[in-house]
Amino acid sequence: xxxxQADLARSEELDLPEGLTLDTPRVEDGAAIWRIARDSKTLDxxxxxxxxxxxxxxxxxxxxxxxxxxxPVAFITGYIRPERPExxxxxxxxxxxxxxxxxxxxxxxxxxxxxxxxxxxRGIETTITPDNTASNRLFTSFAERxxxxxxxxxxxxxELFPDGGHEPEVLYRIGPLADRP
Length: 181
Prior knowledge:
Structural class: alpha+beta
């Protein structure tokens, strides 16, 4: 177990399905993360190159779930917002189809926010399209579990997107999060 896995697994609140571990992504995970995002059929798919860079440059603010063979089966990518260094921006959340329905996304989010609390993070932001029921539930239940307020507002209206036909992106601002060990 790596130090990052130990940090993430430390809390008894993390209830990982049998055989899975949480870890910091590595560059060699980029291709698998790209495939999980592609196969989700709900995420805006970034270039495969961007996932490699994400695993290199934003690994400390991202997390993967690994199966018994060490391969990624779920991920969250995130970054610290430059203008608000106490805020983690969650970019993407995806779980491989074979591992859905087990609460893995919630466990990843809890583990990641626990880890980045050590970086001074006290709240999170994410954007969600109104029809993304799973993400709406994930972040609403996260706020409830952590007793944190949620503010919602439209961040980007659909007409701002040059490729057209994009729904508005609703900004979820969650926090402050309670101090946690």
